[in-house]
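Lay summary. Proteins are chains of building blocks that fold into shapes, and those shapes determine what they do. In this project we predict the shape from the chain. Here is one chain we studied, written as its sequence of building blocks.
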Amino acid sequence: MSLKERINADIKEAMLAKDKARLQALRSIKSLILLAETEKGGTEDLSKDTEMKLLTKAAKQRRESAELYAKQGREDLEQIELQELAVIEDYLPKQLDEGDLRVRLVEIIQRVGATGPSDLGKVMGVASKELAGQADGRAISTAVGELLNNTDF
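And here is the predicted shape, written in a compact code that computers can read:
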């Protein structure tokens, strides 16, 4: 079942359950999918990779908005963003914890033959592709930088 079909089915369930918060989040995901399908050069069926990029971007936006609202003392808006984030995360693959992320990054560093901080770009290119949807880009970048600075991995 494609993401679009799954979202449509879940929208129906949320409507029947009268779950307004979930319904709003699902509709925003559906909107992203429809925009991606209809944009210039887009195709009717999105690839799994494109779907994951859309969901990851949406999750990142919700996370950043929630942080901003928290700083401004707007708990009401922060809660809305966090609820939508929780719904979006249901459709994303399980996120790697810091320990698992470091293990995977060490494997990638050894595979590409990186020896120091000057190889950051080479490692990030491979890591970003392989870990897409499983870890935040900022977390990957931070961990790669630390690992390459400490060559005793």
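What the prediction tells us: The chain has a mean pLDDT of 87.
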